[in-house]
Amino acid sequence: MGNCNNKKITRRKFVKGVAGAALCYACLPLKSLSASDENSGIDILGGEGGNVQLAAACGTYCGACPAYLNKHGEGEKRYSSGLLEDSVNSLVESMNNMSCDGCLSGGTLAWHCQNCNIRLCAKNSQDNERCSGCDSLPCYRVTSLINQGDYPHRNEYLPNLEKIRTMGAEEWAVYEEARWNCPECGLAMSWYDAECSGCGEPRSADIFSLSFNISLNTGWNLISLPKEPAETAVASALGELEGKYISVWAYDGASWRVYDPAAPDFCDLSMMNAGKGYWINMKEAATLSFSDITPSPEVTLNKGWNLAGYNSLTARGASNVLASIEEQYISMWEYKSGWKVYDPISPDFSDLRDIKPGYGYWINSKSECSWALP
């Protein structure tokens, strides 16, 4: 679930915002509108890219839409992280099956854009086919879409339309292209990519932030922390679950360790770290949320059985995730209300297809090795 609040929008608030934005941009030199500094090498006014057809009628930037990137992007297929709000996960998963050239491209449109009443209204009433020039903005069509569900990318519609009105669609499209590119390798990122699908770099601080949740069922759950907690003591790492769990168990390759919140002084499990898997016995269903530092992408595996964590915020196919230890492991197991297995010898007969953040995994390794994520 994103950190942006889905606030109700009124016309009065929008008009005041437009006036403020216009004054701000008028007072700033053109250089200040650049999305780059000396290190980035990208100038939003003179850089490459910035396809104007990606400036959608509603104010979204189509270049970050999963449906557009499925057709025009590079790198892996976009996966939902699995740790966002259920409605957001469902949206991204549905878009993984779509293909689109952009709202105003004149080419293929995703099904939800084909009959979009915002797009059709702007097409019939605005010279540039965008809401940015409409005197009725914000109208009920735009505000209804923003307030429908809890999708953080929609909260950018009206601020984006203000910028398009002030900067012009072409300059804004270049600005957005730079904003949504990976800060490390330059690969385009989608609205809900937690990290770059090419190099693994975390999403830029220039785009809206995300928080992540692990859903826990009553009873036993096999989990991992895909990000290192700020405080690693078990009681601190699970602070928001206080009173809701019975015990936490870890396996170090030779023996079991346990943390019992009712008797912490007699426990031999004192910390929880990313890269480790944990069994947690819940008294009731609950949610564990986090937004802390990113851990190392490598996990050390012992010979034999390892209870390991998946150090990523991006779901990926099992064969891809395990490529660095190919021929060094026997199988990988997941538990979520039932067991699933991935067998590299018989991948087509395996029911564990995708490795997801927040899950813990049993890995049977042939030898000690280092599991490096892609």
Quick recap:
The protein is an alpha+beta fold and 374 residues long. The chain has helices spanning 11-27, 66-72, 86-95, 111-114, 117-125, 140-146, 157-167, 169-179, 234-237, 318-321, and strands spanning 212-216, 219-224, 245-251, 256-259, 277-282, 286-290, 298-301, 304-309, 316-317, 329-335, 339-342, 354-355, 360-365, 369-372.
Largest sheet: 4 strands, antiparallel
End-to-end Cα distance: 25 Å
Which percent range fits the helix content?
A: 10-25%
Q: What is the percentage of strand-forming residues?
A: 15-25%
What structural category arises from helix and sheet content? alpha+beta
Tally of helical runs: 10
Mean model confidence by pLDDT: 82
Give, in spatial order, the strands making up the sheet with the most strands: 2-5-3-4
Shape: elongated
Taking all Cα atoms into account, the compactness measure Rg is 23 Å
Please count the beta strands (DSSP E, at least 2 residues each).
Answer: 14
- List the helices and strands in order: HHHHHHHHEEHEEEEEEEHEEEEE
Uncertain ranges: 1-49
Question: What features would you describe in this structure?
Answer:
There is one protein chain. By secondary structure, the protein is α+β, with helices and mostly antiparallel strands. Helices cover 22% and strands 18% of the residues. It has helices at residues 11-27, 66-72, 86-95, 111-114, 117-125, 140-146, 157-167, 169-179, 234-237, 318-321; strands spanning 212-216, 219-224, 245-251, 256-259, 277-282, 286-290, 298-301, 304-309, 316-317, 329-335, 339-342, 354-355, 360-365, 369-372. Residues 1-49 have low confidence and may be disordered.
